[in-house]
Amino acid sequence: MSEFKELIKSFNKTRDYVRDFFVYGFKTREDFTGKSIRTYDNERRRIESWLGDYVKQDYSATGKNIHLSIDSNLLDTNPLYRVWKAKSFTDNDINLHFFILDTLSCDDGYDIETLTDMIDEKYDCMYDSQIIRRKCNAYVKEGLVRTEKSGKELLYFKSESADLYFSQFSELTDAISFFQLGAPLGIIGNTILDNVNETNSIFRVKHSFFVHTLEDEILFELLKAINTHKEIELTVKSTKNDNLSTIIGVPLKIFTSTRTGRRFLCYYEPDYKRFTTSRMDSIKEVKLLNIFDDYKLISEKLDNNLPKVWGISFNSYDNLRMEHVKLTLHIDEIREQYILTRLESEGRGGTITKIADNTFTYEIDIFDSNEITPWFRTFIGRIIDVECTSKRMEQKFKSDLETMFKMYEI
Amino acid sequence: MNIFSEIYNCYYQILKSIITNHPEISLEDLRTNISENGFEESLLYLIPKLESGEWNLFEKEGNLFLSKIRKDFSVPLTALQKSYIKTLLQDRRMLLFLYREEIENLDSMLADVKPLWDDSSFYYYDRFSNSDPYEDDNYIHNFRTILHAINNKQYITIEYISPRSDRIRRENYLPCKLEYSIKNDRFRLICLRKDRTSNSISTLNIHRMQSVRTMSDTFTEFPDINEIITNSYYKEPVHLLISTKRNTLERAMLHFANYKKNTNKIDEDTYECFIYYNEGMETELLIEVLSFGPTVKVLGNKKFLKLFIERLKRQKEF
């Protein structure tokens, strides 16, 4: 029986557990089918260890469940970042981290043999010079150490101190404090704050979906592919039946909803000559392939299509090429200007027309009218009519309203 | 470059902090430090490693642990961290923190570094279009004055353009937090009135501030904003029944992930969810629930249900 450890080698397995505990929070041990009880217990214990302050337990008729209770209104940082700080390592890793960075200097370079001797002398620790070399080379890749050639010898230096940046630009700490919550890949900003021993106490971020950080490793790879215009092979897990499939595509943009918490990769499938999207949390693996020659052309085509995409769908709800939707609203022009402001700021370029006193229409052409329905519903209480070239959408909207009236006996 | 790397590990950070702040530390203080800054079970792993010398970073002298590493130990920024900073320099909100010239200088210091993304890589498809004017000089000045005041615990005087009447109101405040909304792409100041009689929070849009000046008076401590916010929550949460139809459960759980909530399974097709909120969040929560249509049913609290039914009744009149 292996000993329980709170650190982990790989992020993938844990990612799904944290997501389930955080997003759903109602699953009992029995709901985690396909996993052994020991696996569940270990994962649960780890999450309790990392995020103890946020873990709550409940007892329901279906059994005990644990969930993460995180109120983003009250937090200066994303608690889920702690999961990223649980990577396992060896004794050599941690010893050499401190020995090498303590011994190397920014100004004087040492070759590996000299560095090995210095570490032996200073810390009374004998290492094979190959081990030191391997670690130093790994740190060169990470940017913590740099090399310079001196004759036949390769000299190792410590990279410049973080202070070089933070002492010169004093407001940079405040900036990082904000962006670690207010911009993508905030975990990186958070590690910078760790490095300079700072924490955020000034900024709060609303409408931030903390759970997105669990996809940051995938996002990082996708951004690399987007930056270099490369095709990718995606391994995607179906959200309906857990089946894995492989997709070849050209990644173009990350589509993010600031309301629903969903994030998607938008990509072009050359085999089918179409744009499509996959949910970020369904992407399990990304492999970078070759450069896609027509990247710029495809990217421009996507930009031209964007005004017609209400959400993430490029396909019609009713097998039409394009769907025209029209919402007629009652708005008190004097007292309800904020509703007009809402239509303007949330309406993504749709046309607003006053057709009578206190009566306005909002119209737009989009690919998939089904996607606009949730937004239309937010105007319930003032909707005079909904019209759409997709009769299916129109009927669904109206029958849903009837169902709601019945639900509340109105 | 890896995000999931031991370089950022919590244990590394704890040890770095002990080495630089407490190069001589007792076992008790070591335990306290690890308990405060580590994971819940970190103590069980770190202490034996340090005591046995497997992690050979300290020398033991009696009850004291003496660091073998220099007190001024530092870790350079990684390539990943530099790339992240380089990326942020392109963000127009950086102007709220650094002057253009500073951004240019920092950018040239990072000349060899590649950014991780550019603005066009992300498309926030449902973000409001009327974002704050981050390049406006007066806006930048007001933002920085507030930031400076929070950092130095200074009261501020704000001339604020009222959203309803366009009248300008002048008031003195204790600034607490700057709140950014990703959906609105706007900053708001969370503050308390200086001459307050109760601890009720004011939330002011930065873009509606005509001017902000720091006052000469300072305060000694920030009020406990979290306590004030928590106390402002209604005792009874919103009580929802969520159907599994149309994938609603999955969508609702993610949609409401920002709120303090609790969810239970009722049967195979139905779940109940309790969402905690205050008056300031009420309208937004109401329209969010409305957006789900008939697959989410409001059961309570009474006030929320009443508001919800009022909207439906008004709708039926059309």
3D structure, described in words:
The complex is a heterodimer of chains A (410) and B (318). Chain A has a 5-stranded antiparallel β-sheet with strand order 9-8-7-6-10. Chain A is of the alpha+beta class and 410 residues long. In chain A, helix 5 crosses helix 6 and helix 8 runs antiparallel to helix 9. Chain A has 5 domains: 63 residues; 68 residues, Winged helix-like DNA-binding domain superfamily/Winged helix DNA-binding domain (Arc Repressor Mutant, subunit A, Orthogonal Bundle); 36 residues, no CATH class; 97 residues, SH3 type barrels, CATH 2.30.30.520; 85 residues, Alpha-Beta Plaits, CATH 3.30.70. The longest helix of chain A has 17 residues. Chain A starts with 11 loop residues before the first helix and ends with a helix. Chain A contains 14 helices and 14 strands. With 318 residues, chain B is of the alpha+beta class. Chain B folds into 4 domains: 62 residues; 43 residues, no CATH class; 91 residues, SH3 type barrels (Roll); 84 residues, Alpha-Beta Plaits (2-Layer Sandwich), CATH 3.30.70. In chain B, 35% of the residues lie in helices and 26% in strands. In chain B, the strands form 3 sheets. A 5-stranded antiparallel β-sheet of chain B has the order 8-7-6-5-9, covered by helices on one side. In chain B, a hairpin with a 2-residue loop joins strand 2 and strand 3. In chain B, helix 2 packs antiparallel against helix 3. The longest helix of chain B has 15 residues. Chain B is globular and about 80 Å long. Chain B starts with 9 loop residues before the first helix and ends with a helix. Chains A and B meet through helix 1, helix 2, strand 1, helix 4 and helix 7 of A and helix 1, helix 3, helix 4, helix 5 and strand 4 of B.
